[in-house]
């Protein structure tokens, strides 16, 4: 029998369709909201029992989700605190009024009372995104309470009548509309429940499953099993981030990682987050193996609020350079909009961001100091995170400069201060600047590396996707230090010393050699210069200016003004070593054809050393080489 009819208390008739259709970015959110409400109600009854405010039997405290495809209904049931008819009117009919405020006021002296805040109101109304009628059948935990039923067809009208529920708790019954019948498929509901409820703190049952248990052996000695139907609990109510690190083993962390990312390689290490002031934050962040490929999958960290999955878009909480980490973070202090789907940057978010940055830096520093050899072995996997952090975060740079490593072409590792100490004696130029030489392709630039090592110079390997930006950062931060690619000029120009090597050629001879090479090369992008270099240097060297080459490399990563440099034509400097014996031989030869062949051979050797000789030019070079040694 209907006891009351009325109109839902909202400010305008136009709000309801907005709530129904546009409040949430994805209509699957309805299940998260309703299951979360059921979990909240369940936690409340547990808390009331612990406070002595409820003395009845708690029973099997779980949330059940069921679907009736024929009746086109989805039901979410709990054994929580339930509601009276008056509470329905207060918490459901007055849209956006939350029972949490009153509940908190009533039990404000209770320890950890924040844990039991539940939201009715707008979260509940997400049901109308998929249902054209919603029923509430509920019985309050309060002594002498009567069951109540609330029905609404998606308009602002509702009716309340006596309910038929005989045990404490609430059933929410959704009558699914024709446009949302995908949610009547069990696989779809299970998918959503696993996504949002995988770690809810109350067991979530979705149907039954068959469990096989051993039952001895048959007459042939083969094992027998008994098959029984048991509740299918889809969630882990005690994930590791809710536990104390001292109670966990490495295997616990690894098992949890496998649970989150079943097809990933095992992580390098992890950080357990646990802070309760000035904000509350728990979680576990894992360092995956990334190598030198900048994997742009930035949805590997999952954000939870009291174990309810919110989003995997955490860019405001986790520093940009750590978006490649995996794991979970859980905080009730992160502000969410009404759909709990998007973060709003505020003071707490900034504090959390800074805290995570500090924890990561402290962990890396701890690993470096505890076992440097092991840290060096992990460097190829973690250097991407560290370099990205140093480039993008000033505070992280200040911490990381003590443990960030440089690797030379012989796979030796140095901290930034160590490397300066190693090379400053030999690689300080005449102006007092320390020059760090590096290679981005040691195999291809082997000739240049060998020439540098003959002078007792050291060469770093800088071939990561961020190294162009990292190099620029180091030059900005390190005093009197410049980094130059080992093949970006002749060595005497890369590290200029006080001693100047004079060219043995006369001005007339230099002009003759320059003309010969220009005619032989016949390429406007090649700028020929005859220079006085060490006789041990190559007869001809082809290089691109360090600045221009660096800008072009950065342009390949895209964005901003760098694209301008990428559009410019490649220009190279051809340095002809006037002190090399081959150049003297060319000058001493009267046969113009031989001169041209020798010049071309020397030039092609320079191209070959840069990996710039290919196709028909390479074939001609090989044939010419054979003819020269016949």
From TrEMBL:
User: Is the keyword Isomerase in the record?
Assistant: no
Q: Where does the source fall among the domains of life?
A: Bacteria
Tell me which Pfam families the record gives: HATPase_c_3, HSP90
| InterPro entries linked to this entry | HATPase_C_sf, HSP90_C, Hsp90_fam, Hsp90_N, Ribosomal_Su5_D2-typ_SF
Annotated keywords: ATP-binding, Chaperone, Nucleotide-binding
Spell out the family assignment given in the record's similarity comment: Belongs to the heat shock protein 90 family.
PANTHER family documented for this protein: HEAT SHOCK PROTEIN 90 FAMILY MEMBER
Q: What is this protein called?
A: Molecular chaperone HtpG
- Please name the source species: Rurimicrobium arvi
Lineage start: Bacteria, Pseudomonadati, Bacteroidota, Chitinophagia, Chitinophagales
């Amino acid at each position: 029998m209907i006891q009351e009819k009325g109109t839902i208390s909202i400010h305008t008739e136009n709000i309801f369709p907005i709530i129904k259709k546009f409040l949430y970015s994805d209509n699957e959110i309805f299940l998260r909201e309703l299951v979360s409400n059921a979990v909240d109600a369940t936690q409340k009854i547990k808390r009331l029992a612990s406070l002595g405010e409820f003395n009845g039997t708690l029973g099997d405290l779980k949330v059940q989700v069921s679907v009736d495809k024929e009746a086109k209904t989805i039901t979410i049931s709990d054994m929580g605190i339930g509601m009276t008819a008056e509470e329905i009117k207060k918490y459901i009919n007055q849209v956006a009024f939350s029972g949490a405020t009153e509940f908190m006021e009533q039990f404000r002296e209770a320890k950890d009372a924040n844990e039991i805040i539940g939201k009715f109101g707008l979260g509940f109304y997400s049901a109308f995104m998929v249902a054209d009628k919603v029923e509430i059948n509920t019985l309050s935990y309060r002594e002498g309470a009567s069951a109540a039923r609330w029905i609404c067809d998606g308009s602002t009208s509702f009716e309340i009548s006596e309910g038929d529920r005989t045990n404490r708790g609430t059933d929410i019954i959704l009558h699914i509309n024709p446009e949302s019948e995908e949610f009547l498929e069990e696989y779809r509901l299970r998918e959503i429940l696993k996504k949002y409820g995988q770690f809810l703190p109350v067991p979530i049952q979705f149907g039954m499953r068959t469990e096989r248990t051993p039952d001895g052996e048959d007459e042939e000695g083969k094992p027998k099993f008994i098959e029984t139907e048991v509740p299918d609990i889809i969630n882990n109510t005690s994930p590791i981030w809710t536990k104390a690190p001292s109670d966990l083993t490495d295997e616990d962390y690894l098992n949890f990682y496998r649970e989150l990312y079943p097809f990933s390689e095992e992580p390098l290490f992890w950080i357990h987050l646990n802070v309760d002031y000035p904000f509350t934050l728990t979680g576990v962040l894992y360092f995956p193996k990334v190598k030198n490929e900048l994997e742009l999958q930035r949805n590997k960290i999952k954000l939870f609020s009291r174990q309810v999955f919110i989003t995997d878009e955490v860019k405001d909480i986790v520093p940009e350079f750590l978006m490649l980490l995996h794991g979970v973070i859980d905080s009730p202090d992160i502000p969410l909009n009404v759909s709990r789907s998007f973060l709003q940057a505020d003071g707490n978010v900034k504090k959390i961001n800074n805290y995570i940055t500090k924890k990561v830096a402290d962990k890396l520093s701890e690993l470096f100091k505890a076992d440097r050899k092991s840290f060096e072995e992990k460097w190829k996997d973690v250097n991407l995170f560290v370099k990205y952090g140093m480039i993008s975060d000033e505070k992280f740079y200040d911490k990381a400069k003590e443990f960030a490593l440089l690797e030379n072409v012989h796979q030796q590792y140095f901290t930034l201060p160590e490397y300066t100490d190693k090379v400053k004696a030999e690689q300080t130029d005449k102006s007092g600047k320390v020059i760090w030489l590096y290679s981005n392709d040691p195999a291809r630039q082997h000739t240049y590396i060998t020439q540098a090592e003959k002078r007792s110079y050291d060469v770093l390997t800088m071939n990561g996707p961020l190294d162009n930006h990292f190099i620029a950062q180091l030059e900005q931060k390190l005093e009197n230090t410049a980094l130059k690619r080992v093949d970006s000029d002749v060595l005497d120009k890369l590290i200029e010393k006080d001693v100047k090597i004079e060219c043995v050629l006369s001005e007339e001879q230099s002009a003759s050699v320059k003309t010969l090479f220009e005619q032989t090369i016949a390429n406007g992008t090649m700028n020929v210069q005859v220079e006085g270099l060490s006789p041990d240097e190559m007869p001809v060297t082809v290089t691109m200016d360090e600045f221009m080459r660096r800008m072009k490399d950065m342009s390949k990563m895209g964005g901003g003004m760098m694209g301008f440099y990428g559009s410019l034509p490649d220009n190279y400097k051809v340095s002809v070593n006037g002190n090399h014996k081959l150049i003297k031989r060319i000058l001493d030869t009267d046969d113009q054809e031989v001169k041209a062949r020798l010049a071309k051979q020397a030039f092609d050797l320079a191209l070959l050393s840069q990996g710039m000789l290919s196709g028909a030019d390479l074939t001609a070079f090989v044939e010419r080489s054979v003819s020269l040694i016949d």
